[in-house]
Structure formats: C-alpha cells, structure tokens
Amino acid sequence: MDEQKGEPLMSEDVKILVVDDESIVIKSCMTVLKSGGYNAEGVLSGREAMQKMEETPYDLLFTDLKMPEIDGITLIQWIKKKRPETGVVVITGYPSQETIRDALDVGIIDYVPKPFTPAVLLDVTRRAVEWVKGTTAVEQKPQDEFPPSMLQEIDRVIQQYKGKPGSSIPVLQRCQEIVGYLPPQIQKIVARGLKTSAAEIHSVVSFYSFFTMKPRGDHNIRICLGTACYVKRVEEVLSKIKNSLKIDVGEVTEDKKFSIETVRCLGACGLAPVMVIDEETYGAMTPKKVPEVLAEYS
Ligand code: FES
C-alpha cells in the first residue's frame, strides 16, 4: 500500500465477512482469503450476516446477490444504514449490467464474477482494502498535495455537471484527464461536489477499466487474471514482469516508463495467457517471452 494513504493496513488487521448460500463458495473464499493473511469468516445467509454485524464491525463484506429470504441488495441496504464504514463487494454469477447497476446504486465498492480464480479474489480484496484505508485517510488528511489550480479546475468541472443525471462518469473522466488518475482524495471531492457517496463514486471508478486509481507509466501493462489465463499460468508471467521491472501491481517504475495493472478478462481468452501494453495485445505469453516484449518499449 502506498504512503499517501497513511500507515499500511496489515492484512491480518482486516476483518472480512463472506455471505453466500453455497457452502462451496464460502469454503473457497476462506481458503483464498486466509492464504492472503486476512481475518475472514463466512456465513450462509443474510440473516446470519446481520446478526454477526450487529455484534462486530467488519472492514469488508463480500456478499452474493441471489440468496433466499434476505437477498444481497436488502442486506447491503441494511449495512449502509447500520455499518456505513464497511466496504461491500458483491460476488455474483453471470451478472447482468442491470444487476451490477442496482448494486452500484446501493454503494458497493467492487464485484467478483463467479466462478473466480484465487488471483482475482485476492486482487479485488487488495483494492477493496485500499479503498477502506483510503477513505479513512482522506477524512484525516488535507488535500494540499494537489495544486490549487488543479482543485479549481476540478471544481469548475463539478459545477458544470452538478445536478445533471448520469454526471459521475463524465466528471470522473475529466478529473482523470486533469490529475492523471483518480486517488481516493479526488473521488471524495467529486462525491461531495455531486452530492453522492464516496462508495458510489468508487464503484464507478472500479467498474470501468478506463479509470485508474494509481498513476500510470508511459507504457501501461495490463495482465489478465481471468480463469482462462489463470489456468495457463499467467501468474508466472506476472511474477517475471514484476521481477524484471522491480515493481508490484499498481506501481510505476522509477523512470516512470512502465506501470502494471491487473484485469479480470481482456476478451481474448483464446490467446491465454494474455497481456496488453498500451493498445498492443500479446497472447500465449510465457515468462521467457517477457524480456523481448519489454525490450520493444526500451
Ligand atoms: S481470461 Fe484472460 S483474456 Fe479472458
């Protein structure tokens, strides 16, 4: 986690509750989250989740949407009233645009499509933890790290779109052009300006891949962690790239030349494992091919 968001939050400090009516999903989430060092528990119904959350605050809740008795949306609405500080991530099979829209409207911060790979679950969790940490840090930190002219420009954009329906995407696009990326501080300013919640703005930022919460290098490398790429050992390719560039996912090299991002599917599963640098797609990647591909950009 980078310094601008304050003290790093250790994964064992992060309390996660997973709710899903399929015990196999709970089981696999527990295995993966515990392998990442997270303090995770699982329950099989919305009612049990409510009981747990009445007693204990959790940093994150992962919930299915389709569940008998209390469905995911009802559970999320309840959490927004009772535990607004908890970040909510939806785990769902075959999500339609509509389902995701409903979930975004009630303020989720991200979603994981079922079936998911361990790499995707850990990646979403890492980002959700950054969000939890980021929103807390924003409350405590002045926004003086951004030049006043930049903040004025952002304010002008917000005033231009304020009160218009569907304004969050164009405002965020403009803000990304102005700042270069959309850190939690900027998301918070947009949320306040558009009179909406930080969680809703964050959902939009994480849902659309053209938004980024981290600065990008001159050449942005996107690695797919989706199922087809995962089974073809994309993690070995990722680890070779990280070692070659000496940066982690979400970071930029010292010379600002490269940055690395992970995505869930690049829509080229037949070429797995796949990575994209800027607009160029590289299929059937192997760790051996990494140096020659990177050399094209040196
Ligand atoms: S899973 Fe990697 S491109 Fe689809």
Instruction: Please count the beta strands (DSSP E, at least 2 residues each).
Output: 9
Please provide the ordered H/E string of secondary-structure elements: EHEHEHEHEHHHHHEHHEEEH
CATH superfamily of the largest domain: Response regulator
Strand order of the largest sheet: 2-1-3-4-5
Shape: globular
CATH domain class of the largest domain: Alpha Beta
- The residue-averaged pLDDT reads 86
* Head-to-tail CA distance between termini: 27 Å
- CATH fold-level topology of the largest domain: Rossmann fold
The CATH architecture designation of the largest domain is 3-Layer(aba) Sandwich
The hetero compounds bound to this protein are:
FE2/S2 (inorganic) cluster
Q: Give the biggest sheet.
A: 5 strands, parallel
How many distinct helices? Answer: 12
Question: What's the helical proportion of residues?
Answer: 40-55%
The tally of domains stands at 3
Radius of gyration, taken over Cα atoms and rounded to an integer in Å: 19 Å
Stretches where pLDDT falls below 50 for ≥5 residues? 1-7, 136-142
The SS-based structural class is alpha/beta
Q: Strand share of the residues?
A: 15-25%
Describe this structure in words.
With 298 residues, this protein is of the alpha/beta class. It folds into three domains: 9-131, Response regulator (Rossmann fold), CATH 3.40.50; 141-207; 219-295, Glutaredoxin. It is built from twelve helices and nine strands. The strands form two sheets. A five-stranded parallel β-sheet has the order 2-1-3-4-5, with helices on both faces. A four-stranded mixed β-sheet has the order 7-6-8-9, with helices on one face. Helix 3 (72-82) links the parallel strand 3 (60-64) and strand 4. The relative contact order is 0.09. Residues 1-7 and 136-142 have low confidence and may be disordered. The structure holds FE2/S2 (inorganic) cluster (FES). FE2/S2 (inorganic) cluster (FES) is lined by residues 224, 226-229, 265-266, 268-269, 272, 274.
